[in-house]
């Protein structure tokens, strides 16, 4: 006569425990399903002091340089140096970077001014509206996380492309520089340039496992960012200011 209430109580206890377990599992799944926060969009301007079409893009990219959700970088390229003025900030490796983007994005030959956002979207970028549109097209979730403790740069475990990714260190001048141009298409003008890149260094590979890299010594007056990027001009997977 007493077995039935006992069995009923045991069944209720088991059901309660099961409900608690299922709720915990559901909560954990929901937490895992939460998307990672979107990282800053890297906005790269490929420009030249010898290009008469570039000053509006220099100004447009300069306007987003202080936004916390954007990392703005100005790469001066070399292929207009024959037009009468040798760009004072241009380097061959910056031109090579743009050529890699042209191949990856199917843009044909490189051109100036060109804005590449997140390694995903590209366009002329010669107005604030055009730059904002590219930023919107490139915004996405970061696939890993970059941190630095002074001596080391760490890329956390995450989702890597099948061929892995490159880890880049970019040093740039955060000031707005007033650049006098004495010849060529912009001869006689003084051009404002912001976040001018002064060096581009590949630190190594990232394959999805946590990785650490020695942080190069700081350079006076320059700031630095780290980019984790799919190889050969592919999408930028994560970026961080140091």
**Hey, roughly how much beta strand do the residues contain?**
25-35%
* pLDDT < 50 runs, ≥5 residues: 1-11, 18-36
Order of helices and strands, N to C?
HEHEHEEHEEEEEEE
Q: What's the main sheet like?
A: 4 strands, mixed
- How many beta-strand segments? 11
Molecular shape: globular
Oligomer: single chain
Q: What is the averaged pLDDT score? A: 87
Largest sheet, order of strands side by side? 2-1-3-4
Computed over alpha carbons, the radius of gyration is 25 Å
Distance between the termini: 74 Å
Number of domains: 1
Helix content: 25-40%
Counting helices, strands and paired strands, the structural category is alpha+beta
Number of DSSP helical runs = 4
Task: Write up this protein.
27% of the residues lie in helices and 33% in strands. It has 242 residues and is α+β, with helices and mostly antiparallel strands. The strands form 3 sheets. Strands 2-1-3-4 form a 4-stranded mixed sheet, sandwiched between helices.
List its salient traits.
disordered N terminus, four-stranded mixed beta sheet, 242 residues, alpha+beta, four-stranded antiparallel beta sheet, 27% helix, 11 strands
């Amino acid at each position: 006569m007493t077995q039935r209430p006992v069995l009923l109580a045991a069944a209720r206890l088991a059901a309660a425990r099961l409900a608690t377990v299922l709720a915990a599992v559901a909560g954990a799944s929901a937490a895992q399903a939460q998307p990672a926060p979107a990282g800053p969009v890297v906005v790269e301007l490929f420009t030249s002091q010898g290009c008469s079409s570039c000053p509006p893009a220099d100004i447009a990219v300069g306007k987003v340089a202080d936004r916390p959700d954007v990392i703005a970088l100005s790469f001066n390229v070399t292929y207009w140096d024959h037009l009468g003025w040798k760009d004072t900030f241009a380097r061959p490796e910056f031109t090579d970077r743009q050529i890699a983007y042209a191949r990856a994005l199917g843009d044909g030959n490189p051109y100036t001014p060109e804005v590449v956002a997140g390694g995903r979207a590209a366009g002329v970028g010669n107005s604030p509206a055009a730059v904002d549109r590219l930023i919107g097209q490139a915004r996405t979730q970061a696939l890993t996380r970059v941190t630095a403790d002074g001596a080391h740069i760490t890329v956390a475990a995450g989702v890597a492309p099948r061929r892995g990714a490159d880890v880049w260190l970019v040093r740039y001048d955060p000031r707005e520089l007033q650049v006098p141009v004495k010849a060529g298409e912009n001869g006689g003008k003084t051009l404002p340039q912001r976040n001018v890149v002064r060096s581009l260094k590949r630190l190594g590979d990232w394959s999805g496992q946590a990785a650490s890299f020695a942080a190069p010594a700081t350079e006076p007056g320059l700031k630095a960012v780290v980019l984790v990027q799919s190889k050969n001009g592919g999408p930028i997977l994560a970026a961080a200011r140091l």
